[in-house]
Design goal:
GO terms for molecular function: aminoacyl-tRNA deacylase activity. The chain has about 180 residues and is α+β, with helices and mostly antiparallel strands. The mean pLDDT is about 95. It has 7 helices and 11 strands. A 5-stranded mixed beta sheet has the order 6-3-4-7-10.
Length: about 180
Amino acid sequence: MRAPIGHFDDVRTAPDSLELLPSPVADAVRHWRGSVPAQQMLYVDSDPAVADTAVFVEHYGQDLLETSANCVVVAGKRAGETSLAACLVLSRTRVDVNGVVRRQLGARKASFAPMETATGETGMEYGGITPIGLPADWPLLIDAAVVDLPHVLIGSGRRRGKLIVPGKAIAELPGAVVLEGLGVG
């Protein structure tokens, strides 16, 4: 099997790779009910030593620079209460935390969540957090440019391995809110 983007030696459907995914991600794939069949979600094996975007693109294909997205966990604070959300933007951009995110969450202040919070609340590894399998009550803020892609490379929940998913499937994830201008720069 070949991946539609990048150059990977080991490509499988995500439903055939459940044992390689952390439990929240595997459960989300197992119970997927979106308009895109789960069989169109692919797992590609990748070296965790080259998981950071620039090195990853150099190793697995320049086309991934335009088709990769990063998922980060943010914390919004208002009146002493903290709420968590996830943001998904193209890898070549950064999340507009102090503008779009803060306003969308109705927070007085927004910032990236500490690593321990991000990994503890998601059950995923830092550097591999994916929008698939996040806590169901979290908002998932997605830059519109991500859902416009035919295929997007995202984390798998671990630093080893990635998922390739049709962009329109990402818009169907629980809590998804598609926003213009979430990714800047």
